[in-house]
Design goal:
Order of helices and strands: EEEEHEEEHHEEHH
Number of helices: 5
Structural class: alpha+beta
Distance between the termini: 18 Å
Helix content: 25-40%
């Protein structure tokens, strides 16, 4: 990590395409509800992510705002998925999962306020190691995988207020969604396509969502899933870290 820019800030969304690099905006900072948007970090297919801050009682907190792009704010299916992500993430309270602080609408735009992870994502680490022609040290790779599994175990075992299993499956465990803070903390992010028993939306039969390279055979075949599919994906990530 030492060779990377310490100013880099990672977010919970997968922005691995050409727009993933942080972008500057001359109109910032500007007010967004109770928040102030400081910098545009990335623009994805259907959402944009900002570095932001909130002030309450004289206390300032920095966070990440994930906001639905205006052209998708009236798309019922996408808004339902966004609400599902918020419903799932708000109940997850574990040190290896990116925390959701707030969810709502400002001027018709749905948003989430998420924990700021000051560091890099695992993709950055893998690229740096690949440039050196080597994988991660075994102890580092296994520690990252262990913390990933701790976060996923919490999600898999989560129950609702009636004590019923929520049946959460992340479905998109991959290096893009693993964040590593400069303090060494490892966090799983982006439950955007997670499956849960009480979700508003459901994947259509035969429809596959996620990154194919990390899918379990059951997920790739669009079969019913449980937490074991995420464990499979974590094993693939561990293999990738080592080689």
């Amino acid at each position: 990590l030492g060779s990377m820019e310490a100013s880099r800030v990672s977010t919970t969304a997968d922005f691995s395409g050409p727009n993933r690099v942080a972008l500057a905006s001359p109109a910032m900072p500007y007010a967004f509800g109770r928040y102030e948007l400081l910098k545009l970090l990335a623009v994805g297919g259907m959402a944009e992510v900002f570095l932001a801050r909130s002030k309450a009682g004289g206390i300032e907190r920095r966070c990440v705002i994930k906001r639905v792009l205006p052209r998708y704010s009236t798309n019922r299916e996408f808004v339902s998925m966004f609400i599902d992500e918020a419903r799932i993430t708000i109940g997850l309270d574990q040190e290896n999962i990116v925390r959701l602080f707030d969810f709502g609408q400002v001027d018709g735009a749905y948003f989430m306020a998420l924990e700021l992870v000051d560091g890099v994502d695992l993709v950055d680490v893998l690229r740096a190691q690949k440039a050196r022609g080597e994988g991660l040290p075994v102890h580092a790779a296994t520690l990252i995988a262990r913390d990933m599994l701790r976060g996923l175990e919490h999600a898999h075992n989560l129950r609702d207020h009636r004590g019923r299993p929520m049946g959460i499956v992340h479905r998109d465990v991959s290096p893009q969604n693993v964040l590593i803070g400069w303090d060494g903390n490892v966090k799983i992010g982006d439950f955007g396509i997670a499956d849960a028993r009480n979700g508003l939306t459901s994947t259509m039969h035969g429809q596959v969502k996620g990154k194919f390279s990390y899918m379990s055979p059951e997920q790739a075949s669009a079969k019913p899933l449980d937490g074991r599919s995420d464990v499979w994906a974590t094993g693939v990530v561990l293999w990738e870290m080592l080689v």
